[in-house]
Specification:
The structure is a homodimer. By secondary structure, chain A is of the alpha+beta class. In chain A, 44% of the residues lie in helices and 20% in strands. Chains A and B meet through helix 1, helix 3, helix 4 and strand 5 of A and helix 1, helix 3, helix 4 and strand 5 of B. Chain A binds a DNA duplex through helix 3.
DNA sequence: CCAGGAGGTCTCATATAGGATACTTAAAAT
DNA sequence: ATTTTAAGTATCCTATATGAGACCTCCTGG
């Protein structure tokens, strides 16, 4: 089904660029013959997935995608439930607040409030992180897996070094995961990105299952190692409130 | 290109239902032969636009759409700029706050904070309103058009009665539009929906062009005719702040 | 334990979507 | 004013995506 595949490629291409693209550039980038591309862009435009700007052949993503994105109800309950708590956290800490969840075995950022530190952490809503072992939320998910599943996952992705602080051996990781279970939060110390720390806490749903993670992210100059436990208490508090709002049985684990 | 067209139909179908759909239901609803649908769903699933739930053949929209939705940068600057001001409005008024803009000659709701009145106004982010003359934001857009363009638009859509309060004749509408220009806000009195009032103000960008509208919506029992001017001042204040943040020259028009 | 129903795959003849080429239009550029 | 570049349309032959039907496999209910 070349038409469909190409259409999805076009959409991905438009999503990957930060500017609108002219017909010819799409054509060359994806190696699609002109008449075919014309048909595809015509249909996508008609359906609102793509918009033509300037009436002179520049294309960009269309508003229909905003609508479709808004209609993903499943994980969006978590999102809407968490929103007010995230805002409170953002207000009290001034830091970047992130909400993530698992979807199709991928860790997805589903909401974010940028802190006032002027440091952009350039993760994008909807983007997936591949490195579970290098991310607070990923470590939390790993910590909640049964041992076998975890081993399988780790075997598949390995433990690539993302920064020089990334945990690189299984024993150390296992120790850290136990620690996470015991303390009820994860600490990420420049393991995904040099100069950025995170404190992350798990959110549970009404079945007691891990529904997602909320995290505070900040550059190291305003998130020192000493701040760790304070901020951890703060995120844990927020996570507990969100879990409660999700209908989780109130349980005291730290 | 049946594959593409059908794929888009599948996505729209999944978006239109509030539950996950089984293979067979999609098949019958859209009249797609089994192998074709299998191919389409396979590809859409692979690309993350659709997700299979429960491992037992239920389909729903996938997270990739969240990502794509988040990548619509064009109008999203307005959205992120407006967010904090919307939140402040929501906090001080307790009412539903709406942000809308024009895209492809359609009025689109691009952000929304629900009020605590328990009354759902059931408009969805990303959805388009067809009736310019029956909506605060639509009237503002009409008021900003040059006379000829406005006539053309009105000729195309007519003035259908949406509720018994909808403005139904051109003279009355023109009078109201002049009023909007003079006062710097629009009042919508159950013209789109029985029992709902709105106060809406225009937001301008750095070129002085109309960038969007911010509105306060509320059921009539907590938004009486007498509240009108107070709430108008409040939205206008917010709109002014957002315009300023958008880089508009600070101008005092009311 | 068997039957029924659903999701999903395979095969292959054939209708049809695709692409090479040529043409039209229109805006820039010389 | 003429040329060039790019978007988009039209045509039509052919490579290929499609769909009927058969088949597989798993679950569920009798």
């Amino acid at each position: 089904m070349p038409a469909l595949e190409r259409a999805l490629d076009v959409i991905d291409l438009l999503a990957s660029r930060d500017r609108d693209l002219p017909f010819s550039e799409i054509m060359h980038a994806l190696n699609i013959p002109k008449p075919s591309l014309a048909r595809i862009l015509g249909l996508l435009t008609e359906r609102g997935l793509v918009t033509k700007t300037d009436e002179r052949g520049l294309y960009k993503l269309g508003m229909q995608l905003l609508y479709l994105g808004g209609r993903i109800e499943s994980k969006l309950r978590l999102r809407s439930v968490a929103r007010p708590h995230m805002e409170e956290l953002a207000l009290t800490t001034g830091k970047t607040i992130e909400l993530s969840t698992l979807d199709r075995d991928q860790l997805i950022l589903i909401d974010q409030i940028e802190g006032n530190e002027g440091v952009r952490l350039f993760t994008r809503i909807g983007s997936a992180y591949p490195y579970f072992h290098a991310i607070g939320a990923g470590k939390i998910y790993l910590a909640h897996m049964e041992r076998n599943k975890r081993k399988e996952v780790l075997r598949k992705i390995g433990l690539p070094m993302v920064t020089k602080h990334t945990i690189a051996n299984v024993e150390q990781l296992e120790r850290e995961l136990s620690d996470i279970v015991a303390k009820g939060f994860a600490f990420e110390d420049q393991e995904l990105r040099e100069g950025v720390r995170r404190a992350v806490a798990p959110i549970y749903d009404s079945h007691g299952k891990l529904a997602g993670c909320i995290g505070i992210a900040s550059p190291i100059f305003s998130f020192t190692y000493e701040d760790k436990d304070d901020l951890a208490q703060v995120v844990k508090g927020a996570a507990r409130k969100i879990s409660a709002d999700m209908g989780a049985a109130t349980q005291n684990n730290g």
